[in-house]
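Batch manifest line 206
LIGAND: thymidine-5'-diphosphate
JOB: complex structure
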Amino acid sequence: MSGLLITWEGLDRVGKTTQLRLVADWLRGEVREVVTVREPGGTPFGEKLREVLLREADAVSSLAEFLAFAAARAELMETVVLPALARHAVVLMDRFIDSSVAYQAFGRGVELDVVQTVNRAATRGRMPDLTIWLKGEPFGDSEGVDRVEGRTPAYFRRVEAGYRWLSEQEPERWVVLDARQDPAVIFEAERARIRQILIQKGGDPR
Ligand code: TYD
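JOB STATUS: finished
ARTIFACT:
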């Protein structure tokens, strides 16, 4: 397996983007190529879908919403992520397949089987080498009031349960970190784990 794929997961606004940036800045001094992407998005097609999805999510049926996330994912994998991994880059992703399991399957009731099968097709089976779950409050910073209407505390608790289930399925892939800690402390934990993986791979992730 070539390259290194690291993903960040967690509820909205737990600090994933900040952590991804800290890790990217550090890794740029360690390896030849670092690529950062966010989901949904990262391609012209995906960014257009992102606009629609973040505005309309939950206003469309859950299956349609999932398939739109998956379409953006397929395009991103095909044109950005898989080519970068083939060049032995380290790819850092702000959300990936696990967001669909947590938000669409556990959160909105799309059949788990459907989500997993379509995810596998969209990613061509490439799983993350490491997934960092920044575990925060079971709902955003305000009681059920969210930019997407209808996302209640109960919904976020289901999403959280989805992440818990996923991390229990594949404990070796997941690192669970308390998002309420100081960002510098979280970064140190991430750096220690990523260093270990790089050492196992002998430096650059070939
Ligand atoms: P974003 O603005 O990136 O939020 P955050 O900073 O919290 O990551 O919005 C992404 C939203 O899209 C977020 O609410 C989670 C949702 N999402 C899904 O529901 N399913 C998915 O597969 C992905 C990638 C994201």
